[in-house]
Amino acid sequence: MFRFFYIIGILTKYLLIYLLLKFGLYRKPKEKILRNFFEQAGGAFIKFGQLLALRIDVLPKEYALEMIGLFDNVKPFPYQDVENTFLQELGVTPHKIFKDFQKKPFASASFGQVHGAKLENDHIVAVKILRPGIEEKVTVDFLLISILAFFADLFFKIEALPWKEFAQEFRRWTK
């Protein structure tokens, strides 16, 4: 439930920024503002922004190009959360399973991050860890994206397909 109100707060903030832009009281490129919204919302919203980046039939080119930054600009979560995930899922820390486990991830994305590790037989592997609480966040995000798609269909029509269908496509693609 906290996630729902958190996203509503972010939406309110960016609605105010949009209004300030309309009245010329705020000066920042609109495409950067849209990307900032998706980054701040996190979770499935980053994935939704990534999908938008690939759909130049949905967004103008300058927006789509800005959204490409969502593919590689996600902050990693703390190593303590990695250890907690291992403890919850497997009952031990990564260093009890792997000969070596890199605390710093070499990749971080919207739903997880990837750490390098070495097995006892010296094989190097990549270990992907889901972000803590991501499944619950995504459930709420899907609901909010569906609601936003409904309003977008009313006020921001696109030629490619209705926003509602786009949101459904996104949900199928993400699951």
Written overview of the protein:
The protein is α+β, with helices and mostly antiparallel strands and 175 residues long. The chain is 57% helix and 10% strand. The chain has 8 helices and 4 strands. Strands 1, 2, 3 and 4 form a 4-stranded antiparallel β-sheet that branches. A hairpin with a 5-residue loop joins strand 3 (112-118) and strand 4 (124-130). The two termini are 21 Å apart.
Could you list some keywords that capture this structure?
elongated, 8 helices, single chain, 4 strands, alpha+beta
Q: How does the SSE layout of this entry go?
A:
Layout lengths: L1 H21 L7 H12 L2 H10 L7 H7 L11 H12 L3 H4 L2 E2 L5 E2 L3 E7 L5 E7 L3 H22 L7 H12 L1
Antiparallel strand pairs: 1-3, 2-3, 3-4
Helix pairs in contact: 1-2, 2-3, 2-4, 3-4, 7-8
Q: What radius of gyration results from the CA coordinates? A: 19 Å
Percent of sequence in beta strands: 5-15%
Give the averaged pLDDT, no decimals. 91
* Spatial shape: elongated
Q: Considering DSSP H and I runs of 4 or more, what fraction of the residues is helical?
A: 55-70%
Uncertain parts: none
Judged by helices, strands and strand pairing, the structural class is: alpha+beta
Termini, distance in Å? 21 Å
Count of helices?
A: 8
